[in-house]
Amino acid sequence: MLHFIPMAKTIIAPIVIVATMIAGGAYWYAVQTQPINTACTMETKLCPDGSSVGRTGPDCAFAPCPDGTLATNTDGTLSDAGIRGTIMLGPTCPVEHMPPDPNCADKPYQTLVSIFRASDPTHPFLLIMSNVSGTFSVSVPPGQYTLSAGESRLPSCDHPSITVLPHAFSSVTISCDTGIR
């Protein structure tokens, strides 16, 4: 009776080790050559033609303007015109009392803010986030804008229109209804 099993174990073990090393090396190489996804902030800069560009690419640099120029003002500062706003969420209690309960006052709302040019109410000109205190500030060229806040059906937020004048920031408060009655 012949016994081939000890010899098979002697040959198979090194083959398994070499195959594991090759597979591990291929995996390491694949992981090292994969691009790393980067999340860029939603900042924008204005272009001379009135359009805006945001950060992009692995280094989150500002994209060039459509005409190929860089998106900066001549003095290197941000635009001196724009919109400052606050987003408030209410009612926050199911029953309002007289006098009003201070714990039921409207609360600041951190959410997505869409800014539309009045001439194009379908495509957002800018998207920004309000902060935890419900406030936002953005530089935009002078003109007519409509704002929208929220990311779903409820809360239902107002869609105020606002005029931005040259060399001035316009203020707006957006009220969002929680649906609590």
Fold and architecture overview:
This protein is an alpha+beta fold. It folds into 2 domains: 34 residues; 99 residues, Sandwich (Immunoglobulin-like), CATH 2.60.40.10. The chain has 1 helix and 12 strands, in the order αββββββββββββ. The longest helix has 29 residues.
Low-confidence stretches: 72-78
Order of helices and strands: HEEEEEEEEEEEE
Fourth CATH level, the homologous superfamily of the largest domain: Immunoglobulins
Q: Number of helical segments?
A: 1
CATH class of the largest domain: Mainly Beta
Instruction: For the record, give the distance between the C-alpha atoms at the N and C termini, rounded to a whole number.
Output: 89 Å
> What is the number of beta strands?
12
Query: Approximately how much helix is present in the residues?
Result: 10-25%
Secondary structure category: alpha+beta
Query: Strand portion, in percent?
Result: 25-35%
Q: Write down the Rg.
A: 28 Å
Overall tally of structural domains: 2
Q: What can be said about the biggest beta sheet?
A: 5 strands, mixed
**What number is the mean pLDDT?**
77
Outline, from the CA principal axes? flat
- Reported CATH architecture of the largest domain: Sandwich
CATH fold assignment of the largest domain? Immunoglobulin-like
